UniProtKB/TrEMBL annotation:
Organism: Paenibacillus etheri
InterPro entries from the UniProt entry: Ala_racemase_N, PLP-binding_barrel, PyrdxlP_homeostasis
Family designation: Belongs to the pyridoxal phosphate-binding protein YggS/PROSC family.
Keywords linked to the UniProt accession: Pyridoxal phosphate
GO MF term list: pyridoxal phosphate binding
Name of the molecule in the record: Pyridoxal phosphate homeostasis protein
Amino acid sequence: MALTLQERIAEVEERVARACAASGRDRNDVKVIAVTKYVSLEMVSSVLEAGLEHIAESRWQDAEHKWKVLGNQGTWHFIGHLQTNKVKDVIGKFQYIHSLDRISLAQELHKKAIAADQEVNVFLQVNISGEDTKFGLSPEAVPGFLREIASLDHVKVIGLMTMAPLEGDPELTRPVFRGLRELRDELNQLALTPEPITELSMGMSNDFEVAIQEGATWVRLGTVLVGH
Ligand SMILES: *Cc1c(COP(=O)(O)O)cnc(C)c1O
């Protein structure tokens, strides 16, 4: 029999807690984002009622209706590839953008954030696995990228984001997640940002426990939490 939403949330919570315990981490250092791109407005509403605060969508076209109805009830994350001409739609609505991957996008985010009189929290998307099907900066490009956007003071880089290849055995994703953590630590040694970069957005339904063991601070969960 299919599990209810409440049961799925409880099961995910147990798995997150176990992964934290297994790696000596504090449960409060890992936040769960419900990825609702596959599901209906009604499901997003149920997720919020069930007490999950963080909602993620990957396309404005799919998110628009949900956000217009439920926007003020949660904290919204934009996790998909963001076209520059869509920045005007998401600024002021999505508190976190996980997919900053090019200078032109940083400039547009800065411009629209100034116009909206806010700061936007961003994660740099990094292609650790090197798959050419994935968006993201190469790890080697990140220091230069941070230097180039340093003057865009309305764009606040709080973390790094990556996606691992889909593997039959989640253990095989570990080097990707470890690579993102090591990159974060190296960047902080270079002190390229006004404040240290603390956040790691990594881990999806298939691999979130490995990501947590490697230091994820945000896991993005669709299928396992809200269904597909
Ligand atoms: C769809 C998506 C997710 C969630 O995927 P699941 O495997 O269903 O958990 C997480 N992150 C990004 C960037 C996505 O596009």
